[in-house]
Design brief:
- The chain contains 21 helices and 4 strands.
- The protein is globular and about 75 Å long.
- α1 runs parallel beside α5 and α8 packs parallel to α11.
- The longest helix has 28 residues.
- By secondary structure, it is mainly α.
- The chain has 2 domains: about 375 residues, no CATH class; about 100 residues.
Length: about 500
């Protein structure tokens, strides 16, 4: 018999709590944690709207003299944002609102499949944790495709469970749709989402699953569409030399030497415990894992956890830096944490339950504290060097200006200034290189003496001294600089 999906506890309070936390800083500019990725995503959306570009031509701001079309993941999220811009104009809160809605959809689906697997109460409490944990909240309204990724993944899991129970092709079709969207967006879900779904298929058909035509069709569609897109994306790289680092531009995300030492795993454990589980969520997860599963389907949760970690280990250069590679852990961890909480509560005495309630309140407080310190505080524009420089660029340069942004590979400045141009680190800038860029249309060079990327301090080293000498007196005063090209002849070192 199919389990009833109507919980004794309504879902709407979870949605309200989740929405309230995700509304914080909804109007914030693209600053703070992972502004690099957010700026690129937002730029692709803005460029698609302003230039009327189709889905298959994602355009970044740092293309220099090229068309700006880059090797990226499919910009499905950015295109949806561009559609909203067409109705309401370019406003970043619209992009954040789309992420918020998708995150709440993921929350609803997490509750549903958690209830299918572990019961109504465990699913509800797992949904509460998904609503409030730091990683879920922040990426639930960041300008990134992560919220779409989680919604697609949760759809695949929830409908996959429904298909396991019913065998209906409609459920399989929706599960396949979610799987296809997730794999297109990030590729790695082919592992951490594919293995749990393969487990469900094994439970339904056993070894006979390899003889099921419909499953082969699903695999062909998912892998075929993914391969087709990334082949196309690589062709864009061959034309422009621009890449998000998949295969072009000397991508190094697949270097596995870091996995040998304790650094990668220690950092991963610390970051996931604090930002992902708000510290106190970790023992709940352990308790949930130690509980004997009531049915075989439940094993897809530990399978998913291990698969996410394994997928991250396939690209350690990326997963070691970008915490959103661990975000999918919450899909599998939250129902288990909900189960851990229910088991503790059911076995506790009346007096012990008071301590448990205090511990849950402390977990929620820890989550909010992490959000305030690690995320929300970093998004404030007041006193931010990158924000101040972006305002100066908007004020002092024309819209059609082409800017050399001395920010390494960080596109945040170009996006905030609404300018296009080049990205370059300060140590690689020479007079001859500037002359070459000027010949290609560069009109200004801009940067900050305080930070290199939007988050990395600019040390007082030889690179800073050489750049000051090259740019001359116009760049020497103040915390930032915007210098027209060509450099004045009386600027020391301005000649090739």
């Amino acid at each position: 018999m199919r389990p009833r999906l109507i919980s004794t506890r309504p879902i709407w309070p979870l949605l309200l709590i989740g929405a309230a936390l995700r509304l914080v800083n909804l109007h914030a500019p693209v600053l703070g944690v992972h502004s690099w990725r957010q700026a690129d995503t937002a730029a692709i959306a803005r460029n698609a709207f302003e230039a009327g570009l189709p889905l298959w031509l994602p355009q970044v701001d740092w293309g220099g003299a090229s068309s700006g079309f880059a090797e990226t993941d499919p910009p499905i999220y950015s295109q949806a944002v561009a559609w909203l811009y067409g109705w309401f104009g370019v406003q970043e809160w619209l992009a954040r609102s789309l992420s918020l809605v998708l995150s709440l959809l993921a929350l609803w689906l997490v509750v549903r499949f958690g209830q299918r697997l572990l019961g109504h109460q465990a699913g509800w409490w797992g949904g509460l944790l998904f609503a409030v944990l730091p990683l879920s909240v922040f990426y639930g309204r960041s300008i990134q495709p992560e919220s779409l990724l989680l919604a697609c993944s949760a759809l695949a899991l929830e409908r996959g469970l429904a298909w396991r129970e019913s065998g209906r092709y409609r459920d399989l079709a929706f599960a396949s749709l979610g799987l296809t969207g997730a794999v297109l967006i990030k590729v790695l879900p082919a592992l951490w989402l594919g293995l749990p779904l393969l487990w469900l298929a094994w439970l339904r058909y056993g070894p006979g699953l390899f003889r099921r035509l419909e499953l082969w069709c699903v695999a062909a569609i998912v892998l075929g569409l993914t391969a087709a897109w990334y082949w196309h994306a690589h062709q864009l790289f061959l034309q422009t030399g621009l890449s998000f680092g998949f295969w072009g531009a000397g991508a190094n995300r697949y270097s596995w030497t870091e996995l040998i030492g304790p650094g990668y795993w220690g950092n991963l454990m610390l970051r996931t415990s604090v930002r992902g589980l708000a510290v106190l969520g970790l023992p709940l997860l352990v308790i949930g894992l130690l509980n004997k599963p009531l049915k075989a389907e439940t094993r897809l949760l530990p399978i998913g956890l291990v698969s996410v970690l394994a997928a991250g280990a396939l690209a350690p250069q990326s997963s070691g830096v970008h915490e959103y590679y661990q975000l999918p852990l919450l899909l599998f961890a939250c129902p288990l944490m909900g189960l851990g909480w229910v088991r503790l509560w059911d076995q506790a005495s009346r007096r012990s339950r008071r301590w448990l309630a205090a511990a849950m309140a402390l977990l929620l407080s820890c989550s909010v504290a992490v959000l305030r310190v690690e995320y929300w505080a970093q998004e404030q524009p007041n006193g931010n060097p990158t924000w101040e420089l972006a305002q100066r660029l908007q004020r002092d340069t024309p819209q059609q200006a082409r800017i050399i942004s001395v920010t390494g590979g960080d596109p945040t400045l170009l996006y905030l200034a609404h300018r296009k141009g080049w990205l370059k680190g300060p140590g690689a800038i020479t007079a001859s290189w500037l002359n070459e860029r000027q010949a290609e249309g560069a009109t200004h060079i801009a940067g900050s003496w305080e930070v290199i990327q939007s988050y990395a301090p600019f040390p007082d080293n030889g690179a800073k001294a050489r750049l000051r000498q090259l740019l001359g007196p116009k760049a020497s005063s103040g915390a930032n600089y915007v210098v027209p090209l060509p450099l004045q002849n009386d600027a020391p070192g301005s000649q090739p």
